[in-house]
Amino acid sequence: MTGLFVTLEGGDGSGKSTQAELLAAWLTERGQTVLRTREPGGSDLGLELREIVLHRRGEIDPRAEALLYAADRAHHIATVVRPALARGEVVLQDRYLDSSVAYQGAGRTLDPAQIRDLSLWAAEGLLPGLTVLLDLDPAAARVRLGERTMYDRLEAEQADFHQRVRDAYLRLAGAEPERFLVIDAELPAGQITDRIRQRMAELLPA
Fold this sequence. Notes:
Layout: E1 4-9, H1 16-29, E2 34-38, H2 44-55, H3 62-86, E3 90-94, H4 97-107, H5 112-122, E4 130-135, H6 138-145, H7 159-175, E5 180-184, H8 189-201
Parallel strand pairs: 1-3, 1-4, 2-3, 4-5
């Protein structure tokens, strides 16, 4: 039996964690077995890599950063995601390869196509059945994050970086409309959840 792989994408502060929690509860009520996970940090190795890429002091070369994300992805997909899908579970994942294309490709001004190819190689070609993009203006995101006392390395980047990330996400969604569901992240959380449920209901096993 094959499960369903759903990824949640968007800039920091767009509400991915909130939606994952709401969707997990809904799926469980429907009798689905749900795995919530994230990148980076969805495995034991991933937790160590997450600390490096998001919280290490000092500069990390953009290519080195991209390779660290790819290393996390390779291990995470092989040891966590694929086994869960083989068991017939619904995997709800916070960030996947589209994040790398947006953040390391566009944000760090590397070649997005190369970053995508690297990610697909790391994940052995696995693509989600559905990618939910919670689209939020970077200025609005900064307001949401404003109460934090500490930003990670990506959250701390300048406004032009986050605008490049948003633009890249929207280009990705435009190129693959059959995989992406784009939702205005400023809508009430309940409305966002309803739209995702409608799309997921079409994909869930009977």
